Amino acid sequence: MISIENVTKRFGSLLAVDHLSLNIDRELFILLGPNGAGKTTTVKMLTGLLKPDAGQISINGIDIIDQPLDGKKQFGYAPEYPNLYDKLTPREFIDFIIKVYSTPEEQGLARMEKLFDIFEISDRRNELIEDLSNGMKKKVSLVTALVHQPKVLVLDEPTVALDPKAARHLKDMLRGLVDKGVTVLMTTHILEVAETMCDRIGIINKGQLSVIGTLEELRHSYGKDQSLEDIFLKITGETKATKVDEFLRSE
Amino acid sequence: MILLLLKNRWRILTSAFRGGGTKNKRSLVKIIGLLIVPVLIFFQIHNLFRMWALNPETGELIRHFVSMSMFGISFVLVFTGLPVVLHQHFLAEDLALLTALPISKKVIFQYKFLDTCISNFGFFFAFGLPVIISVVLTLNTFLLFLLPVIIVSILFIMIPTGISTLIAFLLARFFPIKKTRKLATLVMALLILGGWASVQFFHFSQLDPVSLEYSAEAVQSFRAMGSSFSGNIFLPSNWLVNVIFYPLHQNSSLFVIYSMIIATAALIFLLLCGELRFRLEEKAVWSAVSSRPQSVSAQQKKKLHVLPLLPTLLLKENRLVFRDTRMLQSNLIFLAIVIVLPFFSDNSAGSTETLSMISSYTPLTIFVVLASSSLTRLSIPLERFSFFYLKVAPRPWSLFLAAKLIRNVVPVIIAVTISVAVSTSRNPISMANVFYVLVAEWLLAIGAGAVGLMFGARSAQFDWTDPRYMVSAGASYVSTLAALLCAVIGLTILGIGLYLNQRVIAFVLFFVYVFILFQIGSHLAAKYLERLEWIY
């Protein structure tokens, strides 16, 4: 379970996250928002990479600020950009992760094998990560998040750079894990992904949570025939592509 | 178009000065820090030149010295330029973007050649420019003369860079580029080490007429060596020497002729390198860039094994160092210097007094402290963007820091042990004294390592692309000074104890001091890393 209460984060004069509160439990929650809305900042605070200026964050009841080590054991994290150790191989890197998270050896290795197989990394496992494509790096990053069998998954744009097959495998896996009681928080810009997979959606804009609910609840509030894209644009204040129209007229 | 690309490069180079505030101040500190080496070189050389200029017999030595310096700098630039050329022309991150733009590829490669020259200018600025300025000041020539000489010098850099580029292209034609770059970087490390070793053998004070070590014999052999260099008009470095010494001859036509020769050669290299790189592109040399995927059978041969955590962390640290050529290069240079130092220093190791015997190891101690603090300092930003994995890992910082300290300090400890063994074999001393020296050096290596970790944690720049920017320049200097200061304090404690003939108490106090240093260093490093906000 993820609990975010009244969290605020500033970068100088920029208010990146403004009194954000959110509870996510055994569901697939998707955080949407325009660029610079505060999604990644929220995710980074949740994972302890940034410290909130105010508010509390707990994962499975453990405060991530007061008890960072116990808190970090609870989740698996895959960032938007797969910044892995370029000079290690996927195999060596996963070894490192297994040990760091105190995953029982046999269990960790068996899980690694399965995940390598699903994401088709097995053939490249002994090559240096720097020689892998972006998509392959992303797959390794996802294996990293999944290999220690966390109860909470925090995924920042997990489908970006994945090929359609791997994206499908990931979506199926996340759905299956949620059904088994795992809590998933992911951010995405791909609204189709959000529409097809999520249990609940939250739309963040200018650091504040503008709306939260299931897709049906959002449609109920914003119009039955509205697509998620329409709802998103309405909430983020981009109802009409007037600037695009102007640009096209001037062409 | 090439000017536009250079303008863009200029903007990147000066980006640190835009935006104002602390960023500007930091950049200023960085520049001041970078000026220290050339300024020190300038003062030493200018002093030597002034002495030579006073005596007509030694006056000609200035020209020999400049001639040999310029040749040496050109020679080093040819080899140190190799990895830079391979990077700029084949592996640079902006290549994909540039080649997708509507710019002729020949122009792009010419720009890349100029970009390599800009990288090489740093070396010339540090070691060549102080020599030139010293000549101009010693000969009392018009100071404005410096400007055309610097312009010609910049053009001159294109000649060794051009030779370097041609060699790099030849290698790229036949060998995988990444591996070649690694090899070239190691060759560069060996050259730097060789250069340092030769400077140690060659005592400039022997050439200084006012020095106590002045040797007429050394001056004679220097003159003979210099004559053979200065006389060779086919050496491009001598073209530059002729330009530098133009005011002495008062022959402006000579200045123009040699400047034109250098400019023409620079232009030829610019066009030739652009053309050749374009042709290599046509022959799809890119295929040689990436390594081949391993066969499945080769992978299957690799056994699955997972070690306990600390060895796993040490293994990881080791892999990061060994697989990063530039980091490996730093490691090898430091360790080699520590090992070979006894061959160049005259230890009064035969001394029976522990205090004078230990103080004779001062150069070794300085290098041990430098090596230990530098290597641990760099071990934190070495993680680059993947460092966040340590931030999200459910493990205490002390564990990760311990792995870094052990990985980087143990090789220094081994090197200093070898060094002391070599030194002892040359100048036998009692086993007790060997023991004291070793203990002192080992403890200092650990203490300096902790100080290095602290500064690494405080000033790491994880978004570096060039190892020079792994920590801010200011932090590098402050860290080095802090480590040396800590060593001086420790040695003072030890020295006072030994002076008072309280050997055991001295070592106990020294041990306590290093222990406190270690605790403070590692504690602050952990604190800084814990507080670090991951904004990357």
How would you describe what is shown here?
The complex is a heterodimer of chains A (251) and B (536). Chain A has helices at residues 39-46, 68-73, 90-100, 105-118, 134-146, 164-179, 191-197, 215-222, 228-235, 242-250, and strands at residues 2-11, 14-24, 28-32, 54-59, 62-63, 75-78, 152-156, 183-187, 200-205, 208-213. By secondary structure, chain A is an alpha/beta fold. Chain A has a domain at 1-74 and 182-251: Rossmann fold, CATH 3.40.50.300. In chain A, a hairpin with a 2-residue loop joins strand 1 and strand 2. The relative contact order of chain A is 0.16. The model of chain A has no long low-confidence stretch (mean pLDDT 91). Chain B has 536 residues and is mainly alpha-helical. Chain B is built from 22 helices and no strands. Residues 285-301 of chain B have low confidence and may be disordered. The chains are: A alpha/beta (251), B mainly alpha (536). Chain A binds chain B through residues 11, 44, 47-51, 68-73, 77, 79, 81, 83-88, 91-92, 95-102, 105, 108-109, 122-128, 131, 144, and chain B through 290-291, 293-294, 296, 298-299, 302, 304, 306-309, 312-313, 315-316, 319-320, 323-324, 383-386, 388-389, 391-396, 530-531, 533-536.
List keywords for this structure.
heterodimer, A: 251 residues, alpha/beta, Rossmann fold, six-stranded mixed sheet, four-stranded antiparallel sheet, 10 helices, 40% helix, globular, B: 536 residues, mainly alpha, 22 helices, 78% helix
Describe the structure concisely for a colleague.
The complex is a heterodimer of chains A (251) and B (536). Helix content of chain A is 40%, strand content 24%. Chain A has 251 residues and is of the alpha/beta class.
